[in-house]
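Onboarding guide, step 5: your first structure request.
Type a short instruction followed by the sequence, for example:

Predict the 3D structure of this protein.
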Amino acid sequence: MTRAQRRARLALTLVGLLVAAIGLVIYIPASIDSGTADQARADASAADWGDVLGYEADHAAKEQRFEAESDKRIAEEDKTFGAVLIGLGVVVGAGRWAVRPTAAGPRTPRIVTPGPVPAASVADELSKLAGLRDRGELSPAEFEQQKARLLGG
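The system replies with structure tokens like these:
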């Protein structure tokens, strides 16, 4: 794995953790506020019962109920936002797996250039010349001339 890939994976992990942590910081208090708002709404139910029974509820009870419902709505929106951030953090953190290590680094096309042809041994060359002579493709004089050239003389 290259250095750049390691850095990208680390960055994705850290950003994912940071976003998820921010989401938790928003979600947990909003969840508590939502429970508190539920209790306040239950406490303010006197205004609802007063309306049902035909009594006019006092203005303070209606105001308390309205505030409780507003607090509940805001808390639920904050919980949703926190949950979205947590999910986004998990997705970004999981994105580190998209940066896959390569087995042998980046692939580059391999260019093969012909190298020097390995020199055959003198014995191999003499054997080939003898085969050519035996088949009649080389005269005995040509054979001797090539043999002398191979042996350095």
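Each response can be followed by summary notes, for example: The chain has five helices and no strands.
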